[in-house]
Amino acid sequence: DTLAEYKAEIEKNIKERKTLENKSVAEKEILKKIVENSQMDIPDLMLDAQVEQSTRDFANRMESNGITIDQYLNLVGQTPEQFLAEIRPVALNQIKERLTLEAIAKAENIEVTDEMVEEELNKMAEVYKMDLGKFKEFLTDKERDSMKADLAVGKAADFIYENGVAVEAKPEEEAEEAKPEEAKEEAEAKPEEYNK
């Protein structure tokens, strides 16, 4: 490769990264407006489960950097209660965003194909440096269903970005229908998607 080709490749990569960042920012802004214009009553149990999951996720991220959550709280001068009070509104927003995207996926009949699931499985197997067949053996039906739901939510986010319009969705109905035990199971089964 010549220096010019190398430079062109770097410029292309930078441009692609900025495009993805811009798309992500635009999706978040559109989603924020949709959520602001939606009426939702989130059950306390669903919110509590999300707060608990978000706390666990944060603690795991801290521990992967060699610091415990207690050490983190000492560093920032927060009590556990203050930390939870700070996380609670973020968790509430994550639930609202997720329910909104699920409602959009349903309203727009967004479907996830087996090919899309297979592509995602390939990516995950690569990340974990596992043989695809072995990786599939470890995947439960519940985890596969969760992955399909996550992919549908991702497609709904793409939809709002591409169309830039709010879909008339009623995610509050889904929140009301959610059974308390299912809310906690759902939050535990989906550790990362609420932190997007």
Distance between the ends: 37 Å
Helix share of residues? over 70%
- Total beta strands: 0
Portion of residues in beta strands equals: under 5%
* Cα-atom radius of gyration: 19 Å
Sheet with most strands: none
Specify the overall morphology.
globular
SSE arrangement, N to C: HHHHHHHHH
Structural class: mainly alpha
Q: Helical element count?
A: 9
Multimerization state: single chain
Low-confidence stretches: 166-196
Mean pLDDT: 82
Give the secondary structure arrangement, pairings included.
Blueprint: H1 3-36, H2 44-64, H3 69-76, H4 80-107, H5 114-127, H6 132-138, H7 141-163, H8 171-177, H9 180-189
Helix pairs in contact: 1-4, 1-7, 2-4, 2-9, 4-7, 4-8
Structure, briefly:
It is built from nine helices and no strands. It has 196 residues and is mainly alpha-helical.
Task: Describe it.
With 196 residues, the chain is mainly alpha-helical. The protein has 9 helices and no strands. The protein is globular. The protein starts with a helix and ends in a 7-residue tail after the last helix.
Descriptors for this entry?
globular, 196 residues, disordered C terminus, mainly alpha, single chain, 78% helix
